[in-house]
Amino acid sequence: MHAMIPDAIRPAGTDAFGRTVDYLRISVTDRCNERCLYCMPEGYKGWAQKEDHLTADEIVRSVEAATRLGFRKFRITGGEPLIRGDIIEILERIWRLPGTQTLGLSTNATRLAALAPAIKRAGVRSLNVSLDALDPDCYHRITGGNIANVLGGLHAAAQQNFEMIKLNCVLLRGLNESEFLPLIAFAAAREMPLRFIELMPLSRPDVLSDPNFLSAEELLRRLSAEGSLTACEDFRPGNGPARYYEFRSSRLPLPAKLGFIGALTTRHFCEGCNKLRLTADGKLRPCLGRHGEIDLRLPLRSGGDVLGSFREAIANKPESHEFLASYEPGRPMTAIGG
User: Fold this and answer.
1) Helix/strand/coil (H, E, C) string of the chain?
2) Distance from chain centroid for Cα 209
3) Which CATH code, of 3.40.50.1980, 1.20.140.10, 3.20.20.70, 3.30.1360.120, is assigned to 20-336?
4) Which residues 6+ apart lie within 8 Å of 264 measured at CB?
5) Which of the four pLDDT bands, split at 50, 70 and 90, describes residue 178?
6) Where are the domains of the chain?
7) What are the residues facing 126 on neighbouring strands?
8) What mean pLDDT is predicted for residues 235-248?
9) Integer Cα distance of 141 and 177 in angstroms
10) What's the pTM?
């Protein structure tokens, strides 16, 4: 994919494969008020202790350090970030940093109804909302939650005129296949891009079995039989790896913008990866699909070299993930950050 660039001539903020790393996803908690099958293993009890979570000050100091290395794009994640009591303060302070160009939030929307106005005032410009089903029973089977709370949150967010609200649906064979067309119609009516995401082995290693896994390519083939798909080469509403299509069908009120994230089946999926992750307990993660982490909490609390930890994380960013190499997660998605 890329020839490796020697450390001595590599520009700051560029990894060993020539990719500019300017996007940081920041988990503010590993806790969540839902229990999504693909994110949290059944019976998971490995919550970080409260004192292990980075404080608001430590999170903001981390982001400020990242801006000094050229990071400009930030997204707050969890767990569910809106269950953290000081979330609005964290958002406000990150948005006020001179280096911040974009600030987004990923959420299950269950608390958006009450918080959407404050989130918008705090500086958030875009929302990613998990929405794996519209049918109440199906939604509950996947998440353990109540779809009514999500729909109320989405309605409240739509009133705030965010620059972008994207919907995310994880492809779960045998669970939410009947929901794809209703979700597309829902998204099209609200002019919200809908992204379909392949299942990744981030709750337990056996999730990629044939009874569970549904590829983005298979869904594209199915949709081609329902209507027309046109690639949107220049449509990039965010910083992620989705490939977008316009979908038209007689069953839709308007054309739908659909994104497909095929981490396991898309060739060269990692080629343009520009991100690091910061976990709620202060670890920098160069790659979602590899185990390596760099401790940021220690230098934050001991007066150590915070910039050095970021440089180390960028230097250790691998060429590609290991999801197809019998990858076994060291800790689940809820503990890594979405």
Assistant:
1) CCCCCCHHHCCCCECCCCCECCEEEEECCCCCCCCCCCCCCCCCCCCCCHHHCCCHHHHHHHHHHHHHCCCCEEEEECCCHHHCCCHHHHHHHHHHCCCCCEEEEEECCCCHHHHHHHHHHHCCCEEEEECCCCCHHHHHHHHCCCHHHHHHHHHHHHCCCCCEEEEEEECCCCCCHHHHHHHHHHHHHCCCCEEEECCCCCCCHHHHCCCCCCCHHHHHHHHHCCCEEEECCCCCCCCCCCEEEEEECCCCCCCEEEEEECCCCCCCCCCCCCEEEECCCCEEECCCCCCCCEECHHHHHHCCCHHHHHHHHHHCCCCCCCCCCCCCCCCCHHHHCC
2) 23
3) 3.20.20.70
4) 198, 200, 208, 213, 215, 323, 324
5) very high
6) 20-336
7) 104, 164
8) 83
9) 13
10) 0.90
Looking at per-residue confidence, does 38 or 122 come out higher?
A: 122
Structure tokens belonging to residue 242: 């989705």
Q: What's the pLDDT tens digit per position in 305-332?
A: 999 999 999 998 877 665 655 556 667 7
Beta-carbon contacts of residue 95 (< 8 Å; ≥ 6 apart): 103, 122, 123, 124
Condensed to tens digits (0 to 9), the pLDDT of residues 120-169 reads: 999 999 999 999 999 999 999 999 999 999 999 999 999 999 999 999 99
pLDDT in tens, 191-224: 999 999 988 765 555 666 677 888 899 999 999 9
